[in-house]
Amino acid sequence: MIYTLTLNPAIDYHAVTELVEEGRTNRTKEEYLQPGGKGLNVAAVLAGLGDPVTAIALTAGPTGEILKSLLEREAVSCDFIELESGFTRINVKLHQAGTGIMTELNGSGIRLNEELIGEIRERLGKIGKDDTLVLSGSLPAGSTPDLYRQLMESTGAGKVVVDASGAALLEALEGKPYLIKPNRDELLDLMTQSGEQELIEAAGSGDAEALEKGAAWLQQRGAENVLVSMGGDGAFLLSADGKVSRMEAPEGDLIDAVGAGDSMVAGFLHQAGQDTDPEKVLAFAVAAGSATAFSMGLAKPRMIHQLYDEVRKQK
Predict the structure, then answer these.
(1) Which of 9, 82, 94, 169 has minimal CB crowding within 10 Å?
(2) Which residue is catalytic, options 12, 131, 256, 262?
(3) Residue 309: its H or E element
(4) E strand residue ranges, the chain
(5) Digit-coded pLDDT (tens) for 195-233
(6) 154 found inside a domain
(7) Any catalytic annotation for residue 12?
(8) Which domain holds residue 218?
(9) N- to C-terminal Cα distance for the chain?
(10) Domain C-terminal end among 85, 105, 128
(11) 83: domain CATH number?
């Protein structure tokens, strides 16, 4: 079983409109609601691919009930931790029609306390050694940067995936995660922590070798596999054996990149569950991420498999 944890889920309200005029009434051309939160996105894509998955998420208030109904529509099995006060946040995703430009306004969400953290640790403690746990997304208010590392110590999961950024990811490396997935900008930010300015400048200019050295630095800090997403430039994987695999993104029209990185994580876990070839695992991850970027909403299995065949032709 794969479990995902989303500490600060949301309802994502997507609205497509023309150029927004400040101080004026603006109207939408199209709108839809989608479950928001990195762990929920991972779970939804995995569920679509037929993998056994359970999404653990904190919910609250009337918006929490709406979130539950949206997840039921996606046929995602969930284990909710319900808060007595507050409400699940709403994120506004404003798409400028025909441009690919999106403006986001994300809610602040819930605040954690020791009692809640204790309940989360108890849930994670029931996960077994044959299971995988995905910890992903920003930490809510009331958290400390080492929260993911603490939660890794609480779980019995045999494999833990961490998709976070900044201090939260650096702290989590001490727990030796099975997989981390920074994007290019997040990798550069993390490399800044190393103090190697020359390497940082080279990576910032797009130097592939410098980026790989940055991934190796993260591997040395404790990550088993490092998957680096690079948007339209594809991705590369530094696998546990120290080998680097690269895949370019397939051609397609960018519609909405929200959830593309989460779809990559789902694609990696799906393929890794049935194949030990790192190039095939990376190809499926790239296909899943691209399928979401080329869709309104999260990737569907048919498009993922179609793009997987295209990506595999690179080799």
Answers:
(1) 82
(2) 262
(3) helix 301-312
(4) 2-6, 10-17, 28-36, 53-59, 77-82, 89-96, 101-105, 132-136, 159-163, 179-180, 225-229, 235-238, 244-247
(5) 666 666 766 666 778 888 889 989 999 999 999 998 888
(6) no
(7) no
(8) 179-315
(9) 31
(10) 128
(11) 3.40.1190.20
